[in-house]
Amino acid sequence: MSTANKITIIQYPKCSTCKAAVKSLKEKGNEVVLRDINEDTPTAAELKALLELGGFELKKLFNTSGEVYRELGLKDKLASMSEDEKLELLSQHGMLIKRPIATDGKQVTIGYKEEHYAEVWGKS
C-alpha cells in the first residue's frame, strides 16, 4: 500500500458529510489523518495557503448554511471585510469553515461530492 496518498481531512467529527468523505478516501486506499476543525482550527495563514494551493476564491471557505454564519450576520458583512479580516474570522470560528477540507499538500478539495473525490483522490 505504499502508493496510497496520505490525506489530511480537516473536519467536524459529528458531520455526516465529513464521515462520508473519510469513508470514501479510505475505500480508495488512502491513508487518512483526521483533524478536528474545532479543536485544531486552521490558522489564517494555513487557510490562505490552502486557498492558494487549490486555486479557490476565499468565499468558497465559508459555510454559508451554518449557524455561526447566520448568527454573525455575515451575509451582509462579508462584502465590506478585507481578505485578512475574513481569514482571521474563519480561523477564530471552526464551524464557519466549509468542511471537509482534504489535502495531501499538493492538492485541496473543499466540501464533499463523491464524483469530485473520485476524480481528485481516486488514484491510489
TrEMBL record:
Signal peptide: none
Transmembrane segments: none
InterPro entries with a match to the protein in the record: Arsenate_reductase-like, Thioredoxin-like_sf, Tscrpt_reg_Spx/MgsR
SUPFAM superfamilies with a match to the protein in the record: Thioredoxin-like
Family as reported in the entry's similarity comment: Belongs to the ArsC family.
Protein name per the record: Arsenate reductase
Source organism of the structure: Paenibacillus agaridevorans
